[in-house]
TrEMBL record:
<keyword id="KW-0479">Metal-binding</keyword>
<dbReference type="GO" id="GO:0051539">
    <property type="term" value="F:4 iron, 4 sulfur cluster binding"/>
</dbReference>
<keyword id="KW-0378">Hydrolase</keyword>
<dbReference type="InterPro" id="IPR004035">
    <property type="entry name" value="Endouclease-III_FeS-bd_BS"/>
</dbReference>
<feature type="binding site">
    <location>
        <position position="194"/>
    </location>
    <ligand>
        <name>[4Fe-4S] cluster</name>
    </ligand>
</feature>
<keyword id="KW-0411">Iron-sulfur</keyword>
<keyword id="KW-0227">DNA damage</keyword>
<keyword id="KW-0408">Iron</keyword>
<dbReference type="Pfam" id="PF00730">
    <property type="entry name" value="HhH-GPD"/>
</dbReference>
<feature type="binding site">
    <location>
        <position position="203"/>
    </location>
    <ligand>
        <name>[4Fe-4S] cluster</name>
    </ligand>
</feature>
<dbReference type="GO" id="GO:0140078">
    <property type="term" value="F:class I DNA-(apurinic or apyrimidinic site) endonuclease activity"/>
</dbReference>
<dbReference type="GO" id="GO:0046872">
    <property type="term" value="F:metal ion binding"/>
</dbReference>
<feature type="binding site">
    <location>
        <position position="187"/>
    </location>
    <ligand>
        <name>[4Fe-4S] cluster</name>
    </ligand>
</feature>
<dbReference type="InterPro" id="IPR000445">
    <property type="entry name" value="HhH_motif"/>
</dbReference>
<dbReference type="InterPro" id="IPR003265">
    <property type="entry name" value="HhH-GPD_domain"/>
</dbReference>
<comment type="function">
    <text>DNA repair enzyme that has both DNA N-glycosylase activity and AP-lyase activity. The DNA N-glycosylase activity releases various damaged pyrimidines from DNA by cleaving the N-glycosidic bond, leaving an AP (apurinic/apyrimidinic) site. The AP-lyase activity cleaves the phosphodiester bond 3' to the AP site by a beta-elimination, leaving a 3'-terminal unsaturated sugar and a product with a terminal 5'-phosphate.</text>
</comment>
<protein>
    <recommendedName>
        <fullName>Endonuclease III</fullName>
        <ecNumber>4.2.99.18</ecNumber>
    </recommendedName>
</protein>
Amino acid sequence: MTPAQIETFFATLQAANPQPVTELEYTSVFELLAAVLLSAQATDVGVNKATRRLFPVAHTPQQILDLGLEGLESYIKTIGLYRSKAKHLMETCRILVERHGGQVPRTREALEALPGVGRKTANVVLNVAFGEPTMAVDTHIFRVGNRTGLAPGKTPLAVEQQLLRRIPARYLVDAHHWLILHGRYVCQARKPLCHQCAVSACCDFRPKTTG
Ligand code: SF4
């Protein structure tokens, strides 16, 4: 994609959805962190289903700790890999209470030091909660970046770096949401819906699907 095509790509996505938001449900930075931690290899819908029961009962690190491991597991059993996610979340909560006054830290270094929090989760929290222009490359963004020619790369990190380099600064904070939603609903994994795609004219993918 040329710089002019990238500009059109994001201007089009922005016009269709000026204020994109994550589909994960949360009401605080901690709830966002917990939801993202639980969402690895799971759908947002599945995570929301569990957290709608969990968060009314426990929505701070101390309250999660007070549930105990088995108590926490009972709320998130429907989410894949729930045992290891429960362990990570408990340990993360312990560190938040002991080292961060129960608050979610704002730096990448401190976030990535939390169990179960990798680069992608840290990028989501920095972007969604703190408004930083970071790019969390999930399976959708990895696919869209490569398929469209926007940010070709063999690894998520390579795609992330390309996206940060190529996306105009004014689109960077929201680009993560636009790309995820575009990948989830239009540029789908098995068969992209090119015939319904608003950015088809600036996408390198060939041959386009016709329905
Ligand atoms: S034209 Fe097709 S491949 Fe390109 S972004 Fe749209 S859906 Fe994806």
